[in-house]
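Weekly modeling sync, notes
Attendees: S.R. (lead), two postdocs, one rotation student

Agenda item 3: backlog of single-chain predictions. S.R. asked that every request posted to the team notebook include the full sequence so nobody has to chase files. The rotation student volunteered to paste the first one in as an example of the format we agreed on. Action items at the bottom.

Example entry:
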Amino acid sequence: MFDSDLQANVSERQVTRRAFLLAGSAAAAVVAVWSLRSTPHALSTTVPDVAPTEVEIAEFSPGGVRTGTVRLKKIVKSDAQWAQQLSTNAFDITRRADTEMAFTGAYWNLHQAGIFRCVCCKTALFSSMTKFDSGTGWPSFWQPIARENITETEDRSFGIRTAVACALCDAHLGHVFNDGPPPTGLRYCINSASLAFQSIS
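Predicted structure, as returned to the notebook:
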């Protein structure tokens, strides 16, 4: 009887020790991954050598009225130049395609009238008129303010998605999904840190 109790206690201690070691290993792995993620990478000071291309961009007044279209050279800068201009969070999201945590951005619950512009180059991207509460914790829109002001590309980083970027400076904005409301049925799920809000009084 005492032998069996003793054996049971030894077994329990082994399981407890094993669980403790596994939990400790998992925690160490999480810390290691997080430290690698948050360790600043060396920023390139070299401006990418790309052929100068022009894009057509729709312009909007501070009151949200479309004023016409212009042809502009794409904005191309080095990582170091972007990092100097942007906050760390905005740099990681717009230039490295990171994603902010849900319900943490400045604009997910914003209900003011205005225009959402690119934080990198101030191109008009979305209007509060098409913003809706998606329940996801990110600002969501059922269409961009002007189709020519954004680009969409296939993103295979987590399955197959469609990434959305600013057409003028290639800033990563977020993704677009086919589960939005009428009239488009689209949900442009955008990071707040990619945007600069301009209110309309």
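Discussion: group reviewed the output briefly. Residues 1-39 form one domain.
Action items: rotation student to repeat for the remaining queue; S.R. to check formatting next week.
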